[in-house]
């Protein structure tokens, strides 16, 4: 729904609408077929625009790899890992309408070779870009950039209140209620990107004892109640 309160057609609906116009115009003898061809030329479908945008992104990525690393395009074209990652990122890019995701995928393709990321890690990160929403990733970046502030919280209720206060104009969090926010944080935990302290994700009235931090190391005191894992930190750099 847009700002005027009207329902905005989905990308797939727009593609269908575009096809209907072309077919309808083509059904008109002689003149109709000409109109249909002109329409397709003047008004490319949303999918065609998506493909063109991604082709531009890949071209720009190749240019940066050549400029920054002096990579030879012929050798890159023969690199099986690059081809696999190109196919993976392209598949995700073409099935999403979200520009934020396509930007992440471009960065992923670039950083895979600019920083020589292990293939298994790169492939896993690309899968996470596909699975997670921009809201998940906005939350992850907030935790990463505000570890001291997050460290003062004792439950998911606390961090929810902080985010609602600081980011009340953000399109990502403006209309998210607490149970949905908890589910977002749980998803980040399940993917291994963050580690919350014991009981942190429970409703505040269900927490009977102070949370004990779970870390990747030994659970030292004084660390944040929600900790980015090394895997999570790497993911943020990757995208």
Short characterization:
The chain has 239 residues and is mainly alpha-helical. The protein has twelve helices and two strands, in the order H-H-H-H-H-H-H-H-H-H-H-E-E-H.
Spatially, the strands of the biggest sheet line up as 1-2
State Rg: 23 Å
Which consecutive residue ranges, at least 5 long each, have pLDDT under 50? 4-9, 20-28, 206-224
Sequence of secondary-structure elements: HHHHHHHHHHHEEH
Helix content: 55-70%
The tally of strands reads 2
Shape: globular
The chain-level structural class is: mainly alpha
How many separate domains? 3
Sheet with the most strands, sense and barrel status: 2 strands, antiparallel
Q: Mean pLDDT, nearest integer?
A: 75
How many distinct helices? 12
Quaternary = single chain
How much of the sequence lies in strands comes to under 5%
Terminal CA distance reads 29 Å
Ordered list of secondary-structure elements with their pairings:
Blueprint: H1 11-26, H2 31-42, H3 46-69, H4 73-77, H5 80-94, H6 99-114, H7 119-131, H8 134-145, H9 147-151, H10 156-166, H11 178-190, E1 194-196, E2 226-228, H12 230-238
Antiparallel strand pairs: 1-2
Helix pairs in contact: 1-2, 3-6, 5-6, 5-7, 6-7, 8-11
């Amino acid at each position: 729904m847009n700002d005027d309160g009207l329902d905005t057609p989905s990308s797939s609906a727009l593609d269908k609408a575009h096809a209907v116009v072309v077919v309808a115009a083509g059904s008109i003898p002689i003149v109709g077929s000409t109109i249909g061809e002109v329409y397709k030329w003047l008004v490319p479908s949303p999918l065609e625009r998506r493909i063109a945008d991604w082709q531009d992104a890949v071209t720009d990525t190749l240019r940066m790899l050549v400029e920054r690393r002096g990579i030879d395009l012929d050798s890159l074209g023969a690199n099986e890992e690059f081809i696999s990652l190109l196919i993976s990122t392209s598949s995700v890019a073409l099935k999403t309408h979200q520009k934020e995701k396509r930007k992440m995928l471009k960065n992923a393709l670039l950083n895979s070779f600019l920083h020589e990321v292990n293939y298994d890690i790169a492939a896993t990160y690309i899968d996470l870009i596909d699975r997670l929403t921009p809201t998940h990733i906005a939350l992850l970046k907030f935790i990463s950039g505000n570890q001291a502030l997050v460290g003062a919280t004792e439950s998911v209720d606390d961090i929810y209140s902080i985010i609602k206060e600081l980011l009340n104009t953000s399109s990502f969090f403006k209309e998210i209620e607490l149970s949905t926010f908890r589910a977002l944080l749980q998803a980040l935990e399940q993917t291994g990107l963050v580690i919350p302290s014991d009981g942190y994700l429970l409703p505040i009235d269900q927490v009977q004892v102070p949370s004990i931090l779970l870390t990747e190391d030994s659970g030292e005191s004084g660390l944040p109640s929600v900790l980015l894992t090394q895997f999570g930190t790497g993911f943020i750099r990757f995208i």
